[in-house]
Specification:
mainly alpha
Amino acid sequence: MAATDASSSPSSGAASQTTLTEQQQKRMQTSRQQALSRKRRRQEAAFTTAASSVPAASSNLVPSLSARIALDPSALPGAGPAAGDGARPNGRAGSAKTAKPSWLHDTGAGFMLDEEQEDWEASVANAHRPRVVYEPGPEEYDQDTFCKQCSKPYLGSFLDKNFGVKVCDACRAAGRDTIWGMITKTEAKEEYLLRDEDLDGTKLRFIERKNPQNERWARVKLYLRSEVERVSYERYGGEQGLEDEIDRRITESRKRKQKKKVKEIAKLRRDTFKSVLRQKPVAKAHMHTFNPDDERYVEETDSWVKKCSTCDFEVSFEKM
């Protein structure tokens, strides 16, 4: 009896070791589901990366495939049935077989292929090949692509792009200090007598550059000198009208300065006169008065002496 109990005790111990509690089973089931979810996310990320590299010619095939994968993740290669559908820990299906989606067919090579998107795999393979882009050749020259100064054809220029002036870059470089040069807004006002309404961008084009004095300051507006001259001549009636207006403004400026100077001198005179009036009055000089009856003769000096009637001042003199 004792032997029978001894022989049966190991088998009962082994059975107790293989039996899992309900909490352990739930933990294993949760871990299995989390592992399957991570696997599905990795596979979806791989398909998304491959789909993003497909050329534009076959990009219209990718959205439908991604949508189908999102609806049926179990159709991904290597993805087993979800937990609770008879799945085993090693990922293989149980006795119940998973139904194959209708939009896939077995190629017999160990993988499933989409019937509607059979060329998708080839498109992904061709995505890594270098794409050759053929630039369009130069268009034929017409009358709008000839420089109006040198009459030579050009494909593009700085003035044509920014100001709409049909002048090539070579002519612009040659006339940089003359009509094809750039001037600031302040210079346009001083040299060509333009107003702010002429320089707001409606009549004249301009380009903006960083302020050379300080980058944080307002950007500098640059205008084309020839365009500024054109607008100025239209306002003042030609070059002669502009010169007359400049002379008139210079004359008026001189008159204003002269008038201001006269006012300053008059003010200085008034201030000087007021300062003199504010000074204390100076006493008048004393005039001596001598009475002829008060004259007397001094024998010691052999001279005559007379005395002022208002003060003690005496004067000696000789009578002839």
